[in-house]
Model the fold of this input.
Amino acid sequence: MKKLWSTMLTTLMLVAMMVPVAFAADAEAATKIDSGDTAWVLVSAAMVFIMTPGLGFFYGGMVRSKNVLSTIMQSFFIVALISVEWVLFGYSLTFSGDVSGIIGNLDKAGLAGIGVTTILDNGTIPEFAFVAFQCMFAVITPALITGAFAERIKFSAFVVFSSLWAIFIYNPMAHWVWGGGWLAKLGALDFAGGLVIHILSGVSGLVFCLMVGKRRGYGKSPIIPHNIPMIVIGATLLWFGWFGFNAGSALGANGLAASAFIVSQIAAAGATVSWVVAEWIYNGKPTLFGAASGCIAGLVAITPAAGYVTPMPALIIGLVGGVVCYFSVAVVKAKLGYDDSLDAFGVHGVGGTWGAIATGLWATTSVNEAGADGLFYGNPDLVVTQLISVVTAWVFAIVGTFILVKLIGLFMQIRVDEADEVAGVDISGHGESAYGQSIVAGHPVIGGQDVNL
Amino acid sequence: MKKLTKIDIITRPGKLEELKEALNAIGVAGMTVSQVYGCGLQKGHKEVYRGQEYAINLVPKVKVETVICEIPVEKVLEVAQKVLKTGQIGDGKIFVYNVENAVRIRTGEEGDIAIIDQK
Done:
């Protein structure tokens, strides 16, 4: 382990030395920076940032009280971990140049060559704003996976997996779709990350949870959320941040951003309603947890379509997304018996797949000239392209995650020991506990103090 | 020394305030209350999370523990039952035990004197 750290440190120093101070005096660029666009993208980046800690609360509330810290820790720490990866290699591998359609080059490693005056190619914003905005996407994607393996993974294995996954799976896929790689050339549409973010993370989560096995006691004793208000705080932060996620992907303060904003709200609302109605009919009662899950399902579904569809199709995308995701977590998961702890696959994998296909159905160039017309606008080819991109994302996530987990398993322990899992990963993995002296989730007692009541 | 008796009452959380008042009214001043989970004839309920049903068979209850010596045990049992009885499953249980000794830590007094409220 010591050797690993010293190697990493040396690499870091080398990279730091190679980074030129900054290319000042970039020749007067042809396009000018637009202050409104820049302001919106920077605000959007900050909004997308808050989604990942928000995801920590969303997931944290769903686990048992003995694992809430380790779950939030994964989402919180990954913000830092992947930000470092992003500025060192990730941004360059994704968005700098193109090596045979597969991956970017390392010309912008360490953000080399980008300075205060550098303007994004074909854009109206500083490249730094784009780096920051995309950084938050790179951060949240592996964070979503943590929902699949929650409550049973060693933190060290999580750190290694997330880093490698970001480099070898996220960066190439993001390059294929957004960085001018082969899927972009094929004409696949993914406005804000249905393929790159939700399918990729959801399916990877499914593979990981199948490989690592169920939580102890799964299916025998109730493993239920310890704090539903915390889930709702998380869902609210996600919903809020998602406006930056989808509308910010317009990369400008313009009509497209406003359109993406409103269709996001419409789909989120539609899915919240349809999820709640579905469970009301199916289970007899409408639940807050269901409402919180529904809005996320709708937001996932609209993500790839946000910049290409009009309001009414967005409503259908949301309504269908909510029901499809509800049945995938309530029925399909139970039937198949895998333990996707917090439904990373059931919501993101399934919702993302639906959204990507729906983009092929309802996309229209009347919303976005840079897009394409879908099936219902007379172009069945787009559905085929979308299906190819969906299958690609699935296969890449399955194969890539399988190899990574096998590889990591060769030199380190992935799952926590049984005793540690029983005690809870908070205390066994991090040496801290969330709720002082509590006996049972949600019922703290006054701890060891002389309290005059 | 008068005989010491411990009475445990396990019942519905919603009845706690009424029980406390009724016991205070007959002179039971000291008690220890805890939140507990239990099951008996009451088999719990179902909870549904994201469409998955879970049987929650341990039901939240309160446990009131008190040790008495001057007040007749029958009196406490009568008052407790009067307050707590709804006739439905889940009203709870009362357990009565003999207590060997008691110590008031502040003064070191032992036996009945340790629990008698001297005003």
Summary: Confidence is low (pLDDT under 50) at residues 19-29, 439-453 of chain A. The two ends of chain A are 51 Å apart (CA to CA). Residues 18-425 of chain A form a domain with the Ammonium transporter fold fold (CATH 1.10.3430.10). The interface with chain B takes residues 222, 224-225, 279, 282-285, 287, 289-290, 293, 326-327, 329-331, 333-334, 343, 440, 443 of chain A (CB under 8 Å).
